[in-house]
Write the structure tokens for this entry.
Amino acid sequence: MSFRLAFVTLAIAVLMSWTGAVQADPPKAQDTKDREVLRFGLAADTNVSRQDKTTTHWNTMIELGQRERLDFIVIAGDIVNNAKDQQQWDRLKSLLRKHRFKVETVPGNHEVRIIHEDREDVFNRIYSLDRYEQATGVSVNRAFRYANAYFITFYSGGLERGDTGWADFLKEHLAYANADDSVDWVFVVDHLDPESISFPHAVPKFGGFDRAAIIEEAIADQPNLVWLSGDRSSRYRQTVGEKTSPRAEFIPRENRSIPGFWRFELYADGRLTAQIVNTDTQKKHALIEVPPAQEASPTR
């Protein structure tokens, strides 16, 4: 651990002690299959249900990931179709344990279960992600490391009005990542893209939080950050932004109909590439490449 990381860790620990919150240590880096490159896939909208075709779709996606020699696939939300159906959660749990292949999960709005409803005020509904945590075995907000990549995942939909714990989690782990000289790229994974309306509690005019403004403030000075989302209604494009800022938003819009994913390759020198890979061999696959994070951000 560098001196800068140790200082930031201590500062965050002191701050969290004042607020009474429990602070976890930054994650340790996991090894990759190839020492020179991290390969992972981004998928979404698998919508596992009682229909057998969703299971077939899942298995095809995993087989494709194995052929591509990926270290893992991260599924950015809407993993099941109906959060109230326990049989769907049971099927997902079985699928996650069927293969030795690693799958990382992030909840979306389909994973959120309504546990109480006040019919007089839709914005006073209470939501829960307990079944998601039970089926996947991971917490809603979490961070993990592979090689020179730092992953921050969460659900920013808000489980009750004013719930911005995800934003604190994002800022906390951005501080950890920025203080670690071994991190070249930070990948933030949320089901929603930064400008999507997060119903029901992120609607400012109804007393909710301004999700887009919170995110923009948190990631404003992060040229080495890639936002990964899965919302099919997203308005973001599947390309890299301005050349001076390689931050990008990738959305797997076709995942529901065609088994596949975005394949990312992060090399030891910080170079990052992204390419669409799916079972439609007739489709032209787009390749995107951005320079190492050190070149993109001279101040790092």
Summary: Residues 164 and 249 are 22 Å apart (CA to CA). The first strand starts at residue 29 and ends at 30.
